[in-house]
C-alpha cells in the first residue's frame, strides 16, 4: 500500500513538473513568435517607406522633365519668332529698296 501511495505521489509530482515545463515552453514560444511578428512588421513598414520614397522621387523626376520640355518648347517658339521677324524685316528692306 505504501509503495502504491508513493508511486501516486511521484506520478503527481512528475505530472506537475511536466505541466510547468510545458507552460515554460509555451511562454518561450509565445515570446519568440511575438518578436518574429514585430520584426516582420518593422520590415513591412520599412519596405512601405522605401516604396513611398521611390514614388516621390519618380514623381519629382517626371515633374522636372515636364518643366524641361515646357522650357524647351518655349525656347524653340522664341527662336522661330525671331527667325520670322528677321525674314519680315528683310522683306521690308527689299520693298523699301
Automatic annotation (TrEMBL):
Protein name: Uncharacterized protein
Lineage: Eukaryota, Metazoa, Spiralia, Lophotrochozoa, Mollusca
Compositional bias ranges of the Basic and acidic residues kind: 20-33
Region Disordered: start-end pairs: 1-97
Basic residues bias spans: 1-19, 34-48, 71-97
Amino acid at each position: 500500500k505504501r509503495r502504491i501511495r508513493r508511486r501516486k505521489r511521484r506520478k503527481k509530482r512528475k505530472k506537475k513538473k511536466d505541466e510547468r515545463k510545458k507552460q515554460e515552453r509555451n511562454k518561450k514560444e509565445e515570446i519568440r513568435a511575438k518578436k518574429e511578428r514585430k520584426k516582420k512588421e518593422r520590415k513591412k513598414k520599412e519596405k512601405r517607406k522605401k516604396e513611398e520614397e521611390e514614388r516621390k522621387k519618380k514623381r519629382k523626376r517626371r515633374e522636372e522633365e515636364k518643366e524641361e520640355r515646357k522650357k524647351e518648347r518655349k525656347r524653340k517658339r522664341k527662336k522661330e519668332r525671331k527667325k520670322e521677324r528677321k525674314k519680315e524685316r528683310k522683306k521690308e528692306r527689299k520693298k523699301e529698296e
